[in-house]
Specification:
This protein is an alpha/beta fold. It has helices at 2-14, 55-66, 88-99, 118-124, 126-129, 164-170; strands at residues 22-24, 30-32, 40-46, 70-76, 104-105, 142-145, 151-155. The strands form two sheets. Strands 5-4-3-6-7 form a five-stranded mixed sheet. Strands 1-2 form a two-stranded antiparallel ribbon. Helix 2 links the parallel strand 3 and strand 4. It is globular. The protein starts with a helix and ends with a helix.
Amino acid sequence: MKTLVVLFSALLLSSSSVYDISLNKISGESFKLSDFKGKKVLIVNTASRCGYTSQYGDLEKLYQANKDKLEIVGMPCNQFMGQEPGKNAEIAKFCKKNYGVTFTLLEKGYVKGSNQHPLYTWLTKKEKNGVDDYSISWNFNKFLLDEHGILIGYFGSSVNPMSDKISALIK
């Protein structure tokens, strides 16, 4: 029994938690997703010049309707046909002016490749997230975490944030 406890403890210590990843808001302020423990978190890679850019408005609607139990975190990314060329301040201004965004925006970053942000490494690698491997091929991919930081859903670009698929998991 003691051996089993030691093995279990070692497994817990070696597993990575999304809550351990350091992040920077678009303003430069550092924080961790552990600030959102007890709420579900929807993480989205975003872009200001994409066919899906209007999803910013739906993300804000979803956030306003559920902010007592949901946080939304957007990471602007310029890896898909140069659709997010702006600097952080420009992106923040665009999102506020055009979509009234009040949910958390991160600094612009990489969601794939050799410079992939650790948050997206965790989200896309089964050995980190414990669920599956995911490949991000476009803007506005969505990952939903439960109140304990467990990955419970992945949704491609074409799934609208206000869809029943996402809403059913937020309840």
